[in-house]
Design brief:
alpha/beta; Rossmann fold; GMP Synthetase, Chain A, domain 3; 3 domains; nine-stranded mixed β-sheet; 26 strands; 30% helix; menaquinone biosynthesis; medium-chain fatty acid-CoA ligase activity; AMP-dep_synth/lig_dom; o-succinylbenzoate-CoA ligase activity
Length: 478
């Protein structure tokens, strides 16, 4: 297939590709900058190249430039410590690292490193660059978000990315005025998938360096933004910042992923007529694999919809498919699903069975075929033989006045095996007795947290997903 950005620059040379608060680039300009970048680093052709950068025009140019060299691009999380970055570079056989100067220069890596400024000063070499893409080749590697422990390098082929973009468009549709705002990191799949959609669709993106509720709401109100991807935390902040104002009718979709969303949040959005569309996906599926259609948004609040057109989804216990409304592990397959983790034979054997990918997430499908995500399997608390899903307890706690964040995990207990405990970030002080009384009105007794801890913040990754496995570390510091 012809290189996506090359083809787009030919089809829509003067159409807007990227907009920031200060700049605008057409697809022709973006293509020319990527070609120039590729020819400056032609010595990295075909190599494993890591990119370490926050959201910027530079990271987008670097990504497209590396694809023109058929290099495998490994995205590194800028929040990681040097030891973690070294480990990930070793895992993915990285041969060079490029990125923004304040992230790359302090590192003591035993690898060639280049800042974007270094590359800018290099000469443009007269070399051939790829004008086509081999869809079966690895385009990128991206480490799992680490919400359950050690991250693994997910391989993502060009076909995976292409299939994800096409399946998404078949569900959400395409309109001539669409503009997708990116505030989540490009080094995570939500951000990268939108960059790729932009070239395939011919759709401009509004790029922000990071999440800023005020600036995002301003962009939706005044800059023609029609789509944005969010997680529960960032969605809540946008709603709070919006206040009594409303989004314009041109705003089509707030795509909500990153785990189960509190019912209270969805109800608040519905009251404000905000078009929240819940979705389910992950690094291993190159973003969405199940998404709620617009027409079902209000009738199926809390659902992540149905599998996209080219995807399949089942609920299983082991290799047995479960019946309607039975909670089990979500398993998926489709052309957007990774073929495996890089150099991780054991993990691949554990995660794949007859072309089905076992996600590690728990959920159920209702009588109409709609998916409801319950929790991560690894977050499941088993207390006295009863299954307890932390998200259900968190949902109840978040409905309390003044509770800004809630995280629940299990701790060992000699009598029950495990019991739930809760960590709260609040604006209002609640007594433990009041919290227990409130939970007792909404939860079975065995689900009520046995202890409540008040914190200034909860551990989250770069996309603001709650890292429940790190909550236990707060106990050791008390």
């Amino acid at each position: 297939m012809e290189h996506w950005l090359r083809k787009r620059a030919h089809l829509s040379p003067n159409e807007l590709a990227i907009e920031t608060m200060d700049e605008q680039w057409t697809f022709k300009q973006l293509y020319e900058k990527a070609v120039s970048f590729a020819r400056k680093i032609a010595f990295l052709k075909g190599k494993h190249v890591a990119i370490l950068s926050e959201n910027s025009l530079d990271i987008i140019v670097a990504f497209w430039g590396c694809t023109m060299l058929e290099s495998k691009i490994i995205f590194l999380n800028t929040k990681l410590r040097e030891r973690e970055l070294i480990q990930q570079c070793e895992t993915a056989d990285v041969e060079a690292v490029i990125g923004q100067s304040d992230k790359v220069q302090p590192l003591n890596l035993a690898l060639p490193t280049f800042t974007f400024e270094d590359i800018e000063s290099l000469p443009i070499l007269d070399v051939e660059i790829s004008v086509e893409m081999d869809l079966s080749s690895i385009c990128s590697m991206m480490f799992t978000s680490g919400t359950t422990g050690t991250a693994k390098a997910v391989t993502q082929t060009y076909e995976n990315h292409w299939s994800s973009a096409i399946a998404s468009s078949l569900n959400l549709g395409l309109e001539s005025h669409d503009k997708w705002l990116i505030s989540l990191p490009i080094f995570h799949i939500s951000g990268l998938s939108t960059v790729i959609k932009s070239a395939i669709y011919g759709m401009p993106i509004f790029l922000m360096p990071s999440f800023d509720a005020t600036k995002i709401n301003q962009a939706i109100q005044t800059r023609g933004v029609t789509h944005i991807s969010v997680v529960s935390t960032t969605c809540q902040r946008l709603l709070e910042n919006l206040g009594d104002n409303q989004y314009p009718d041109t705003f089509r979709c707030m795509l909500l992923g990153g785990g189960p969303a509190p019912k209270s949040l969805l109800e608040e959005a519905a009251e404000k007529a905000i078009p929240i569309i819940q979705t389910y996906g992950m690094t291993e599926t190159c973003s969405q694999i199940s998404t709620l259609a617009m027409k079902d948004a209000l009738q199926k609040i809390g659902s992540a919809g149905k599998a996209l057109f080219t995807a399949s989804l089942e609920i299983r216990h082991g290799d047995k498919k479960l019946e309607t409304n039975q909670i089990g592990e979500i398993v998926v397959k489709g052309p957007m699903v990774t073929s495996g983790y890089y150099d991780a034979e054991k993990a691949n054997k554990e995660s794949f069975l007859s072309n089905w990918f076992y996600t590690g997430d728990m959920g159920y499908v209702d009588e109409d075929g709609f998916l409801y995500v319950v929790d991560r399997r690894s977050d499941l608390i088993i207390s006295g033989g009863e299954n307890i899903y932390p998200a259900e307890i968190e949902d109840v706690l978040l409905s309390l006045e003044g509770v800004k964040e809630a995280g629940v995990t299990g701790i060992e207990n000699t009598e029950w095996g495990e019991v739930p405990v809760a960590f709260l970030v609040t604006e209002k002080q609640w007594s433990e007795e009041a919290l227990i009384d409130y939970c007792a009105q909404h939860l079975a007794r065995y689900k009520i947290p046995k202890k409540f801890y008040f914190c200034e913040s909860l551990p989250r990754n770069a996309t603001n997903k709650l890292q429940r496995h790190l909550l236990k570390t707060k106990l050791t510091n008390k």
